[in-house]
Protein: Histone deacetylase
Amino acid sequence: MLKIAFDPIYAHPLPEGHRFPMLKYELIPAQLLHEGVITVDNLFSPAQVSEENILATHDGDYWRQLRDLTLLPKEQRRIGFPLTDRLVERERRIAQGTIDGSMHALKHGVAFNVAGGTHHAGSNWGEGFCLLNDQAIAANYLLNNTLAFLILIIDLDVHQGNGTAQIFENEPRVFTFSMHGANNFPYRKERSDLDVALPDGTGDDEYLRILKETLPELIEKHRPGFIFYLSGVDVLRTDKLGKLALSADACKLRDEFVFKTALDHNIPVQVSMGGGYSPNIKDIVDAHCATFKIAGDLYF
Structure:
């Protein structure tokens, strides 16, 4: 059965001006339920990730400042959200949802987190709406519990996974692959194990050509036992922050290729949804829902 981490706190209200990025987290499961793609049995509500698992990835001083709401104002501005107990709880539930999803993926091949993809959070900083790095926390959980021995993180969000790259810069058991817009946030990039920086306006054919040339070679060379996939839909040409020019059909083909490649190599995949900032919320929700539908068709 396809398992999807979702909790109402993912879409909890924020002060005016901060609500739009959260709206999709409520609409995605609602749309999937409405279309009959999933039932409530597919959804699960995660607990809050333990401090032990946070501290296996994030710096202790940084975590305590988050927990105690003592992060400096300039550091809160870097995150982009005002720091609250509710926001920290949300991040902790997202991180545990990705751990739980990883465990489901080990049994069933694939699992999702409706939220997650908080790849701008580094070991000792938050940035770009990200406080705790959910896929990094889950990757370390798998490694520390000998549930995986080599992990590939495929980050296809339009923004570089700078926090993920920094966290794993000295960890040979995790290979970080980020394919992103060259001229987009974050403007100070970290170094992934492989960065593919795309020029503004990159369209369907070029994007898919590069992905199809790159991903199979990475898997053949490194032989990962687990994949974390960040499937941001801010690559769409409709995205107001993206600077790339993919159609909705190309976004589907991207997801299908990632899943088929993983299936061909019998590698389980945990998927976190990442970014999406098209002005029309329907474009965002439809693109994210397509990722769920493709996986459902291929795996179940």
In short: Residues 4-299 form a domain with the Arginase; Chain A fold (CATH 3.40.800.20). The first strand starts at residue 4 and ends at 5. The mean pLDDT is 95.
